[in-house]
């Protein structure tokens, strides 16, 4: 299976750098971009953007007084994507800095810039630290401290825990899956921070007492679970190289368990998608439209388990996982809770239902926040 995969973006950028004149700007820029693992970084950013876009903003779901509540901010989204991109680039660069000797032993990674000495170690360190500092600052100043903490924590977890664990235990894959599940929480917390009515701390954004943070955790669970039916067949195709490089991956440590894990986690997507409907993130139709792609992934995972990767089952599951995630995300975006009802009312010109009467309203203080909201008279609790 390894030979059927197209070269990744890092390898292509490293090739571009190698062809450029020594000490040229093009060579340096291509090599630095290669350090960031562009395709992986794009996936990380998209996994943060989708929960941000799907957050159930009150202004979108209701009418009348709620229309005066600000919607999601394009500026916040810009800071979220920029900060997440830089944090991901930093984590990937630190990962490459840690294991150039290991990368040199594997066909999948031997084209990386540090292996080919297209960059000095000093330049790579400065790039990684600069991206980490700039990314965390962008998230802190442009989004909120909770998202900035999650971004910094993900860098530390990926570079400081997952990467060294690869030489120690197969549990590294579960740690890597946690890394994959954090960006959706970042996107959700970014949107929640714009609608926060309390102190806006991590407790309110990630563990809201009214259950509004459930959607973020469901997305985190979806990205966590996806890592296994995606990585297990990918690693199985190069299991001998992992063994030779001294990286303890389940694909060669315990091939039978490797297949069982992929199957086990492929089964959770159906309840996760139903959970997004129950949490009010998507319409209930999403549980139906996402079912075919979820069952397709399960079918390929069953084959992978039955044949333990042989008879083309690893390749089939890998490509099913590649398509599964974007299709699921697009379906969720297309069925955001209340979106089409709102569009229909706008197109059909139907009047908004509005029981709010400004002449019969009163200001109510939010305890401890220094803020005030308008409520219909008689509804506030003194």
Automatic annotation (TrEMBL):
It is an enzyme of class 2 (transferase). It is a multi-pass membrane protein. The keyword Mitochondrion applies. GO terms for molecular function: protoheme IX farnesyltransferase activity. The chain crosses the membrane at residues 40-57, 77-98, 119-141, 147-165, 172-193, 265-286, 316-334. The keyword Nucleotide-binding does not apply. It holds the Pfam family UbiA. Keywords: Heme biosynthesis, Membrane, Mitochondrion, Transferase, Transit peptide, Transmembrane, Transmembrane helix. Its main location: mitochondrion. GO terms for cellular component: mitochondrial membrane. It comes from the Eukaryota. It is found in: Mitochondrion membrane. GO terms for biological process: heme A biosynthetic process. Its EC number is 2.5.1.-. Belongs to the ubiA prenyltransferase family. Converts protoheme IX and farnesyl diphosphate to heme O. This is Protoheme IX farnesyltransferase, mitochondrial. It comes from Parathielavia hyrcaniae.
């Amino acid at each position: 299976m390894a030979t059927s995969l197209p070269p990744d973006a890092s390898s292509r950028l490293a090739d571009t750098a190698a062809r450029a004149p020594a000490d040229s700007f093009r060579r340096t820029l291509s090599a630095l971009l290669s350090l960031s693992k562009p395709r992986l970084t794009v996936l990380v950013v998209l996994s943060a953007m989708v929960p941000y876009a799907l957050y159930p903003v009150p202004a979108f779901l209701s009418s009348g007084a709620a229309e005066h509540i600000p919607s999601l901010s394009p500026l916040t989204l810009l800071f979220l994507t920029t900060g997440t991109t830089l944090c991901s680039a930093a984590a990937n660069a630190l990962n490459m800095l840690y294991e150039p000797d290991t990368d040199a032993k594997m066909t999948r990674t031997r084209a990386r810039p540090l292996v080919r000495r297209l960059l000095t170690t000093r330049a790579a360190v400065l790039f990684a630290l600069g991206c980490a500092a700039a990314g965390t600052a962008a998230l802190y100043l442009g989004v909120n401290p909770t998202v900035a903490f999650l971004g910094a924590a993900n860098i530390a977890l990926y570079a400081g825990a997952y990467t060294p664990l690869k030489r120690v235990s197969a549990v590294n894959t579960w740690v890597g899956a946690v890394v994959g599940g954090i960006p959706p929480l970042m996107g959700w917390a970014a949107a929640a921070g714009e609608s926060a009515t309390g102190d806006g701390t991590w407790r309110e954004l990630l563990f809201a007492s009214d259950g509004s943070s459930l959607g973020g955790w469901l997305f985190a669970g979806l990205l966590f679970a996806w890592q296994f039916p995606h990585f297990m067949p990918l690693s199985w195709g190069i299991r001998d190289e992992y063994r030779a490089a001294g990286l303890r991956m389940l694909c060669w440590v315990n091939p039978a368990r490797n297949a069982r894990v992929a199957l086990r986690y492929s089964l959770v997507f159906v309840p996760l998608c139903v959970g997004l409907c129950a949490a009010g993130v998507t319409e209930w139709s999403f549980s139906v439209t996402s079912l075919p792609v979820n069952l397709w992934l399960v079918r390929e995972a069953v084959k992978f388990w039955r044949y333990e990767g042989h008879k083309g089952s690893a390749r089939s599951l890998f490509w099913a996982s590649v398509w599964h995630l974007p299709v699921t995300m697009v379906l969720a975006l297309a069925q955001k809770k209340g979106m089409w009802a709102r569009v229909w009312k706008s197109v059909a010109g139907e009047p908004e239902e509005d029981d709010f009467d400004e002449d019969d309203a009163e200001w109510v203080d939010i305890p401890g926040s220094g803020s005030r909201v308008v409520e219909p008279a008689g509804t506030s609790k003194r």
